Amino acid sequence: MEEHRVEASPRVLSRIGGVLYLIIIVFGAFGEMFVRGKLIVWGDPTATAAKILASESLWRFSVAAELFYLLCAVALAAIFYVLLRPVSRDLALLAVFFNLVSIAIEATGRLHLISALTVLRGAERLTAFEPNQVHALAYLSLQSHGRGFSISLLFFGCVCLVLGYLIFRSGYLPKLLGVLMQIAGLGYLMDGFALILSPAFHAMIFPASLLPAFVAESSFCLWLLVKGVNVEKWKLRASAQPTRSAAAIVQG
Which of 86, 90, 111, 209 lies in the 20 to 30 Å Cα band around 61? Predict the structure, then answer.
């Protein structure tokens, strides 16, 4: 029986990837800056509890939106693999593995956001705790989410480093994008390890440490949406070196 393979063109995949990346950036910024940034009062669990309960629908929507963008992130990881495997199948696959670990940690962290609301909504059933203790429990869940998100960014920093290298060596995407993505990866790694090793130092460098990542990822997203890959060079690379290994690309 003859097997028929149906594959989307790299140009179509680029556009889809750009749309998915845009969803991730917009929904991520919405949840972090316009929801948690407005509702969480760091250092004041009681005020935070009051704000969350007063905007419960918004809080639930933001969690749902961020879970949706994580679904998009899984699809985007697959698209990056297809687009960059002509450069090195091994390294493209490594980026997928790092990406899936990052996504899994981030998704698990969203449970803490749900748990915080569950604790606050069920305060009347937690009779063993005073109201301020209930607020403190919810606040601890929010802090755990923040730590988990930082850990996920450590793995995503590795994703950016690998993708940046592949983009730089591809020949069908701008080298500058590759450099920017690698700088973004270093920024994610520095931010994540600083938070774990020296919170005081992290407070000094945040959010400046993540500015390169915003520039790099926004630029990559826009390039995929507007220009995409150079299809002819992609096809040439794919046909000439379909299974090029990581060792081969390092030697080359």
Answer: 209
